[in-house]
Specification:
The chain has helices at residues 4-14, 19-26, 30-38, 45-55, 59-62, 72-76, 86-95, 97-107, 111-127. By secondary structure, the chain is mostly helical. It folds into 2 domains: 4-67, Orthogonal Bundle (434 Repressor (Amino-terminal Domain)); 74-127, no CATH class. α2 (19-26) crosses α3 (30-38) and α7 (86-95) packs across α8 (97-107). The longest helix is centred in the C-terminal third of the chain and has 17 residues, at 111-127. The protein is elongated, with a radius of gyration of 20 Å.
Length: 145
Amino acid sequence: MSKFHLRLRELRNSRKLSQQELADKLGISKSSVNMYERGEREPGLDTLEAIADYFNVDMDYLTGKTAEIKTFNDIFNTEKPAKESKVYRIISECFGEQTAELVHLFNSFNEEGKEKLLDFADDMMCSGKYKKDSQNEVVSEESGG
């Protein structure tokens, strides 16, 4: 992780965070952040994942294996068909294929489209017609639910 200390400092500064603020957000000590940035200490895998998640970057970038920053959206919106992407498979395994497809579709919208889609989904939930009941079945007005 020879470039990790440089990348961490760069990312922290890009967010205009102090070492203490970053430490608070990650649930670690300020001295740990300081030692990471000076290259005196390297984080464990859990902390490394937390840092990558917080800054929304790929762990390969964070550790210096690649020079290009890849965010979740970059990884998910590859030119590969959705079902062939690693992120699609992970989401599908954890939450189901419909959820993975929904995330893929959502990420293909621009910001205005995303807002409209969320508003539409909120309207559907408020109607009650499409809301799941406690047994995870669809409540339908037609079925008397």
